[in-house]
Amino acid sequence: MQSSSYVPSDHLQLPDHPGVYKYFNAENDLIYVGKAKSLKKRVSSYFNKLSGSNLKTRRMVKEIARIEITLVNSELDALLLENNLIKKVQPKYNILLRDDKTYPYLLITKENFPRIFPTRKLIPKRGTYFGPFASVKAMNNVLDLIRELFTIRTCNLDLSPYKIDEGKYKVCLEYHIGNCQGPCVGHQREAAYLRDLEQAKHILKGNLGVAKTYFKQEMQEYAEKLEFEKAHRMKEKLDLLEKYQAKSMITNPGIANLDVCTLVADEKTAYVNYMRVINGAMITSKNVELKKKLDESEEELLITALIRLQDQFQSDAAETLTNIQLESPIEGLNLSVPKIGDKRKLIELSLKNALYYKKEKALLQGLNQDKKDRVIRQLQQDLSLPEIPDHIECFDNSNIMGTSPVASMVCFLNGKPAVKEYRHFHIKTVEGPNDFASMKEIVSRRYKRLLEEEKPLPKLVVIDGGKGQLSSAVEALQELGVYGKMPIIGIAKRLEEIYFPGDSYPIHIDKKSESLKLLQRIRDEAHRFAITFHRKVRSKNAFGTQLTAIPGIGENTAEKLLKHFKSVKKIKEANLEELSEVIGTNRAQSLLEWKEKNKGA
């Protein structure tokens, strides 16, 4: 494996060799990772055929400042390396599997008389992990089977040989009801325990045939010794294992070890079903959603999903069945599109799952959209608004006795917070605690800015407060000449009363109404945003006042420190060298002496 760097103009110098290419922007952020059978042809295609590319691809190419490549031996190696890089960095232009679940595993511990238990945390030194399992139910079914077949201990005792020999333990209820053979008191030797555990591992790997052979041999040996009761117990366990296999069986048991991966896609999204099949039994079934980033083909989407899912579920399948024929096969990746027989039935089953998942997602999306539309339509009706309020802005002030006065504005689009549109305000023109004048200032500044930038005005303005704050906001809109162009209301917190400009009496919306809950949520978010900002400003100002009390440190020096270190905590943690770079050695020494005297204050 060999790595090299290029600038975009050097792309023609790239080798005609398999590998991975990485695109970096001017800030040296990794924005895209790709794999190629020929790096020269693939990377050149981004720059030579740009006119036929979609908007996102053209935007990405404009951002590229540097290209880094890594040579590998084959296209499959490139796929695996690409997957690892995307999983680690998650560049913004790469396809990401939409899946926020943490999957369960079964762990066989590394200790005397190992235990088996479920976990979601992977700590390799603890033992051997099996999974992940696509659902907790599937994991519990396997675990229950193992506990019925074998007497694996469930206690967490330290069963070191010397502790067992010293007789430190007594048997528990699990021993008396037959779920444990009492290794803690020496009733079961570790060699016999480990033989059972080895068969449990085969079951966890999906190799039920090995475990069935084991029980058949045990049954025959007991029968030959005329120990018919023990032989009967082995027969019961064999029956239990066969019943479990019959439930899991979906096809011919002669189909030994393969994966099935099918894909259905629309313009923006692809839906993938992935199945692991061992000896005719489905041991894993997983659906994932992929959002297209750069107008990727179905072939690219399928390969991306397959590689990541095989990695996630630790597949060692020799063959993968799919519904999409690759234009150029990838050496080392055995993909086939069966047309008839049991393998074709597996494709049809997987496609049925993928199509159902697509339908389910569309239905859920439709329900969520209907709910959002319903709430803002209800709000329009409750407030008699001329338009649907799909753009709402809410203002709130925050100060304590006039100190560090600040304000906030939050924005909700289609009933959801648009955090990027939130704004903080320092109150600049008002002296002392005057909420009304402060409200007038921030409303005026906000909409003066929107008018200058020719941006759309909101469909509803909400003022956190009663008639006084509302009147001040109205004055600001009147002076800007936009009063009447957008509805404005005030919401008083005590009784959740809604005030309109010019009306002496408020209106009340049903307390259980979804529209009132939306207004409350918007108001509470504005209040939270203002309070958080006020605390931050107050903290900086308080420390800044303390700083200016130190000989040789004035307001400009205090401001430099805050601007450079970003927080009070970092100023307090800074050493002499770091402080000297900002304010010089003498002032830095004074600050350190002051910090030492006031330690713990």
3D structure, described in words:
This protein is α+β, with helices and mostly antiparallel strands and 601 residues long. The protein has 5 domains: 2-89, GIY-YIG endonuclease, CATH 3.40.1440.10; 105-206, no CATH class; 257-360, Nucleotidyltransferase, domain 5, CATH 3.30.420; 391-536, UvrC, RNAse H endonuclease domain (Nucleotidyltransferase, domain 5, 2-Layer Sandwich), CATH 3.30.420.340; 549-597, 5' to 3' exonuclease, C-terminal subdomain (DNA polymerase, domain 1, Orthogonal Bundle). The protein contains 18 helices and 20 strands. The protein has helices at 39-48, 55-63, 75-89, 136-149, 161-165, 173-176, 190-204, 208-224, 228-248, 298-312, 341-383, 435-452, 467-480, 514-548, 555-565, 568-573, 576-583, 585-597, and strands at 2-6, 19-24, 30-36, 66-71, 97-98, 105-109, 116-119, 127-130, 257-265, 269-278, 281-291, 319-322, 335-336, 391-400, 403-413, 416-417, 423-426, 460-464, 488-492, 497-499. Strands 14, 15, 16, 17, 18, 19 and 20 form a 7-stranded mixed sheet that branches. Strands 5-11-10-9-12-13 form a 6-stranded mixed sheet, sandwiched between helices. A 4-stranded antiparallel sheet has the order 1-4-2-3. A hairpin with a 6-residue loop joins strand 6 (105-109) and strand 7 (116-119). The longest helix is centred in the middle third of the chain and has 43 residues, at 341-383. The relative contact order is 0.05. The mean pLDDT is 82.
